């Protein structure tokens, strides 16, 4: 078993996997991604992940170079190549390289990147006893400011919220909207069980649909 990186049709070891510093995903976060898990060689809800990826790409006017059916095959080939049964899998599609400026309407060749790594799940103790969480000082971006359906490489707010949690010895950081209502975790969806019913914030609260 070994970590495997797929870039535009070729496989690499982590130390050899490279893209250009002029790639817009690096320069501007101009890229979309999905993070998946495989269990005993089966990628969990892969079709639904690709529907969300396609939606993200359409909103930012990025045309993926592959169909969803082709991406499924690529994901499974990368997983098989890694020989990892229970894997962390991240699929990214960047807008690629555009010669000058930040305008994105020029034609470019998107880059397709798949990262397949061994995953370390939360310990049994965490499942049994739970974890701590803090309310972040960062608020969720309002839906009318940035479309929450876009799962893009612009993840800095979430990273800062996670750093905030770590500084307070917490496992996760919960984001709120401008009215103080919890919307989601920095790296997770938020659910509440009450009176044998499962609750989650509504879509119009600005959450990324999980």
Polypeptide structure, described:
The chain has 210 residues and is α+β, with helices and mostly antiparallel strands. The chain has helices at 24-28, 46-59, 68-82, 124-129, 156-167; strands at 4-7, 10-12, 31-39, 42-43, 87-94, 111-118, 133-139, 172-176, 182-185, 192-194, 197-199. Strands 2-1-6-5-3-4 form a 6-stranded antiparallel sheet. Strands 7-8-9 form a 3-stranded mixed sheet, with helices on one face. The protein has a two-stranded antiparallel ribbon with strand order 10-11. A hairpin with a 2-residue loop joins β10 (192-194) and β11. The chain is globular, with a radius of gyration of 18 Å.
Radius of gyration: 18 Å
Mean pLDDT: 93
Terminal CA distance reads 29 Å
* Secondary-structure element series: EEHEEHHEEHEHEEEE
Q: Strand order of the main beta sheet, please?
A: 2-1-6-5-3-4
Helix coverage percent of residues? 10-25%
Count of beta strands: 11
Q: Tell me the β content.
A: 25-35%
Structural category is: alpha+beta
Contiguous runs where pLDDT drops below 50 for at least 5 residues: none
Continuous helix count:
5
Largest sheet: 6 strands, antiparallel
């Amino acid at each position: 078993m070994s970590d495997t990186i797929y870039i535009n049709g070729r496989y690499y070891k982590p130390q050899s996997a490279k893209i250009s510093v002029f790639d817009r995903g690096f320069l501007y976060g101009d890229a979309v991604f999905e993070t998946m898990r495989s269990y005993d060689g089966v990628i969990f809800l892969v079709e639904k992940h690709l529907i969300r990826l396609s939606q993200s790409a359409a909103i930012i006017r990025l045309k993926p170079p592959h169909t969803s059916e082709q991406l499924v095959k690529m994901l499974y080939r990368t997983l098989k190549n890694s020989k990892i049964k229970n894997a962390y899998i991240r699929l990214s599609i960047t807008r690629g390289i555009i010669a000058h400026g930040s305008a994105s309407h020029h034609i470019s060749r998107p880059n397709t990147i798949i990262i397949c790594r061994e995953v370390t799940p939360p310990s049994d103790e965490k499942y049994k006893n739970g974890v701590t969480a803090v309310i972040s000082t960062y608020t969720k971006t309002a839906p009318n400011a940035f479309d929450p359906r876009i799962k893009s490489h612009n993840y800095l707010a979430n990273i800062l919220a996670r750093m905030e949690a770590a500084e307070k010895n917490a496992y996760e950081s919960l984001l709120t909207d401008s009215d103080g209502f919890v919307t989601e975790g920095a790296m997770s969806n938020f659910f509440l069980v009450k009176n044998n019913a499962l609750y989650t914030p509504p879509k119009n609260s600005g959450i990324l649909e999980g």
